Structures are given as structure tokens and as C-alpha cells.
Amino acid sequence: MKKQSKLLSLSLPSLLLFNLILFNYLFLCYSKTFTLKDDKLWPTEEEINKLANSLKGTLISDQNVNYTTPYTWNLRTGPPRPAFIIKPLNADDIIKVIEFARFHILRISVKSTGHHQDIRNSADDAIQLDMSLINHKLIDLNEKTITVGPGQPFADIHTFINQQSNATLVALSGAEPGVGPAGWVLGGGHGRLTRLYGLGVDALIRVQMVLSNGKQVNVSMNENSDLFWALRGSGGSTFGIIYSLTFQLFNDPGPMSVMSGYFPITDDVADNFQSWLYNAPNNAGSYYSIGTRITSKPYLVLSAFCFDSNENCDRILSPLIYIGNCSATLGATCKVIHQYINYNEFLMATKDNRDSAGDISAYLVSTAFNFSTPSQLAIINQWIRNYSRADWPQSVIACSGNGILGGKSAQLDYNQKLTVVAPAMRQSLMAITCVVAWSANGKNRQDLIDKIDQWADSTLRYVGVDQWVFWNEPQHNFASNIDWQSRYWGGLEIYNKLKTIKIKYDPDNIFTCYHCIGWEDIQNVDPGSCPDNCSCSNQKQSNTCAYSYNQLIN
After folding, report:
1. Is 356 exposed, middle or buried (0-12, 13-18, 19+ CB in 10 A)?
2. How many CA atoms lie within 13 A of 133 on its CB side?
3. Which end of the chain has less Cβ packing within 10 Å, N or C?
4. Global confidence as pTM
5. Are strands 430-438 and 361-369 parallel, antiparallel or unpaired?
6. 82-114 burial by CB neighbour count: b if 16+ within 10 A, else e?
């Protein structure tokens, strides 16, 4: 008889102790602290110049007179100041940067088109990979696919598709034309066509990327399929650096009608709008924008769109005009406008309307509404109505609801077998983000952040779905250290599966960002707020000021 393994002969308590020791050992091996400027591993000027001269793209260090601190959409903290801004031109450049970062244990942040609200695409004393030069476009009209680089904004992608397909094909995209495909699809990818055709992750066919070991790989349902699943909705560049994406294209949905109006902030208006969206067909969607102003009364703007004949869109959209006292001011119509012969015409008409919401100091929280219970939107109205300048000094509060979820996306991958997107998101009808914004250099910003965190944790979370948070517009401070791991992806089971894939493809935890897969093993911190006039990301201690605001002005 064969001797029994000593491990198998261990008692249950001993086996549990063994597993705990093994887990702690693996954690210590996997966790890390990134190199900062005072550390011995910081690269020398000679090493920096050697890397710069080897690249087809560009490298500029923060010691260069031409250096400019990268633009960030949200000035919740002072804008981070990467030590190196590198614009790779191809995959070979990316490989060289990864080798450099690995040797010096430098943090890498990735910026595609820069449209992110939690400042994950930049960090102090780090390498920022600016992917704007990797902006290729290739369309296959027979297969109805498009391959693009991460540096392409959707405005340019739509123009290209419109010209090449004679306005017959469209790509799924975000609503704002300045958004790019990489960050958008990694976060799930919802937009005006979600209810008709699904999410961006559902249309993603193939990804080309560089892994942490410098290897270039194709990622699809047939190649590295576990990594493909992880990329479809996990957020952040934490598995590798993507340099090309291929998407399925769709037939233009046809004529498009729109309506908009200002409405009183009453519970009846909210309930009537919620009822309309709950019963709306998949070819219609809407937006719900509500907020306060410093010098005037709060506002509520409702807008909606429909893809169909004029007659059918009249029937679908007209009831919205009568849900309350509609006011046609500031460009609102209070009637259905049959303005566009197809979606392509709408895209071309709005392609230059880039979001100008940058340069704000704000803190965001988000959830989604499935409208399974009445008066979910009325809770938002009540929050706005109860606003007082005494409670929210030198600030405004607002919420933006994108009623473009559900429909076809709810019928696809409901069990997360093909994508990471949480079922709660697919089954919802509206993604909603609320915000507090304050004046520049606001002295009371921490109080404002604490106040909206408390409201989000005590109210918004329980009115909306619990197991989903919008990756690109998230709450920075979650209620607990593991809360983010569960809520982004629909449960800890999914997070643990993602973590396993992360360790497989990035065993040294080279790629990271705040609350990305594996973030809990990073010892550098990224607090929700900083000391006055300060940037404090990627530091070894909370509230350590990396650079003063005056140093950031070039």
C-alpha cells in the first residue's frame, strides 16, 4: 500500500493553518510598493535618455522645460504629476516601457482619450502611457467590423464609419463624442444604442495587447479566452496594455426623433417619467438631468430619443411632454422634433460637441435604477429639493440619469459567462451619477465629500441596485475595504475569479490603478482628498503632499 501524503494526513485545523500561511506568503510576494523619487531604484538621467532614444514615440520627463502637467477631467485633488509622459507609437514602444518600469519598479498609468472622472489615468511620480498616437482605423465592410487604436475618440471613429459605409453602419459608443473605445468598453460600454444592440463588451470581438512579460498577444473567444472574459467589463488597464480593439458594427437604426423640456421638480414628474421609461420600447431612450445652482433655482431637464418613423416616434415620445408643466427654454423643445434621417446624421451633427465638464472640482457617486419599486427617481428629486446653501456651502449638487440601459443588453449574458458586467447593471434601465461640486480651492471639500458619501451609503445604495457601480464615474470612498470588490462586478466570487486571472497574466502586479483588480495588494495610496492645493496620489502614506498646487502650474 502506498504511503499517505503527510499533507493529506493533517487534521482539519492544521490544514487550515497551512492554507493561511500559504496565503500570507503569496500575498507578501504579490504586494508591492512603487519606487518614488527618493528611492535608490529611481532611474538616472542616463537611463531615462537611453529609453527616450530607443522609442519611435515620445518621452518627456517632469524635469524638461516643455513638460506640462497632464489634463484631468476632475480636480477633486490637485492634478497628479507623472514623472514621465510617454506616447508610444507601436507595440514595440510599449514593450520597452514595460521593461523599464519593471526594472525600476515604477507605477504605470494609462491614458487613452482621458475621459475618466476618478483620476485613475494619472499618478504622481509614475509613468503615464498616453496612447493618443496609437490611433489607427481599419474597417471591414464584408464582416461589418472595425479595428481601432485606443487613442481614437468616437467622434473620429463615427466620421470614418459614416464615410466608408455610406452612412449605413454604426458602432456602439458612449454618448459623449470625446470618449474613446478602450476605457469605455473596459467599463462595460453603454450608450444610445445599448437598448437596441447591447453593450460595448457584447460587440467586442478581439483585443491586441502587451502583457507584463513583454509578450504581444491576441485576445478573443478563441485565444486567451479567460483574459478576454476579464477584459470585457473589468475596468482599468490591469491585465496589460491594449493597443488595438476590434468591434462588431451594426446597421444604422434609421430615422431619429428627439424631444426635451424643463420640468418642475415634483415627485409626480419623477414617477411619471419612471413609468414611461419602464414601459418604453427598446428603440427609445432618455436622460434625466437635475441639480442646483448657486444663484438661481434648481433645474430638471428631461430629454428623450426614438429610432423609428415619425408617426411611431410621436406615439412613443409625446406622452413625456405631458408628465408635468413643460417649459421650452434654453433650447428645450417641449415637442417631438423629427430632425435626423438616420443615426449617422445625428452623430455627424453632434461630433464636435465635446463635453466641457472638465476643470471642475467634484466628487461623484453612482448606481443604477431598475425601477422594480415605485418612486426611485423621486428620492433623487427629494435630495435636490432639500438642498440648502447652509448644508452645502460654496457648492452645488446634481444628478444625471442615463435611461439607456436594459433592452437587448438585458437579454445577453445574464449569468456573466461571456463578460464581467454585473447582471444588476444589465437588468437596470437607468445609470445614475450624482455629484457635489465646489469652487476652486474649496476649504470645506472634505466635509462635502463626507456628506455625499454618507448620503450614498445610507440612501442611494439602497434605492438603486447594490451590486453595480459605474466604473468611469464611481464613488471613490467605499463603505468598507472589500465593498468595491463586490459592488463593481456583482459579487466577491467574480472578483476572486478576476484576481486569479490577474495573477496568471500579471504575476508581479505591474499594472495597477485605484480599485482595479489587485489594488488591495498595492501599498502606495490614492486618497479621496488631499491637503490644500495638493496632489497626493501614489504616495506611501495618506495625505502626503507630493506636489503643491503652485508647482503644478506651468
Report:
1. exposed
2. 16
3. N
4. 0.90
5. antiparallel
6. bbbbbbbeebbbbbbbbebbeebbbbbbbbbbb
